[in-house]
Amino acid sequence: MTEDRTRPLTVPRAAGAGGPGLFVTFEGGDGAGKTTQASMLEEWVTSRGRVVVRTREPGGTEVGVRIRDIVLHHRGHIAARAEALLYAADRAHHVETVVQPAIARGDVVIQDRYLDSSVAYQGAGRVLDADDIRALSLWATDGLLPDLTVLLDLDPAAARRRLDADDKPFDRLEAEKSEFHGRVRAGFLALAAQEPQRFLVLDATRPAEELAHDVRAAIAERLG
Ligand code: TYD
User: Fold this and answer.
1) Bridge partner residues of 149 (DSSP)
2) Helix count (H) and strand count (E) of the chain?
3) What is the pLDDT of residues 149-167, one digit of tens each?
């Protein structure tokens, strides 16, 4: 599959009550604090009189909840290409039925995870090509890219300490896991380097209030 990073957004940016719609995504490894930051941003944007649609992938729609259940809870192997297609199917339905209509109304969409998660996670498995995964998602979403993507960057070891305060003894499985999460992190950072105007990369070890301040500054710029 080929991709075109210069392809423009196909979504109409209608002026809603408070201005044109905005699409903001939060990305990063598990335990980086995405949900906390998304909630803080939601509160702030709402206080400025804008309508916020808070959503997530996978699982931002009824169909998506069923797909989420398969990709996250199915016991046993799922072929790598099938997994990538399931995330893309969730995304296609979510964008068409939730995200695009919200942007067209002029709302501010604040979303946990989007196509960068597919590239970083499905690409980290080393089975699939990152450009193919990205192209698949761009096809699924008719080319929709966020106005701003906040990458909460965190060393996987620190994330793990956050997720599980009890340090477990080293074992091979954990080492493999941490190697995988290292590749996910590198994948996110590579994406951010490719599109510096879309990404805001923040050191997730900083205090939540400081991070929220930087996110607000980037949003204020885009809200005008
Ligand atoms: P998330 O909802 O952030 O997890 P939780 O609710 O447990 O905090 O994400 C679920 C998992 O899905 C996460 O490990 C990353 C993975 N994921 C992918 O592998 N590819 C994708 O395209 C997306 C959106 C998520």
Assistant:
1) 25, 199
2) 10, 7
3) 999 999 998 888 887 764 5
Q: Is residue 15 part of a domain?
A: no
* HSE-up (13 A, CA, CB side) for residue 53: 23
Does the residue 215 lie in any domain?
A: yes
CA of 82 to the centre of ligand 1 (A): 16
Whether 27 is in the pocket of ligand 1, judged by its Cβ within 6 Å, is no
Give me 123's structure tokens. 């690409």
Q: Is the CB of 113 under 6 A from ligand 1?
A: yes
Query: Structurally, how many domains does the chain consist of?
Result: 1
In a domain, 4, yes or no: no
CATH of the domain at 165: 3.40.50.300
Residue 118 in contact with ligand 1 by CB distance below 6 A = yes
- Any domain includes 35: yes
pLDDT in tens, 8-37: 344 445 555 556 899 999 999 988 999 999
| Confidence class for position 147, pLDDT limits 50, 70, 90 | very high
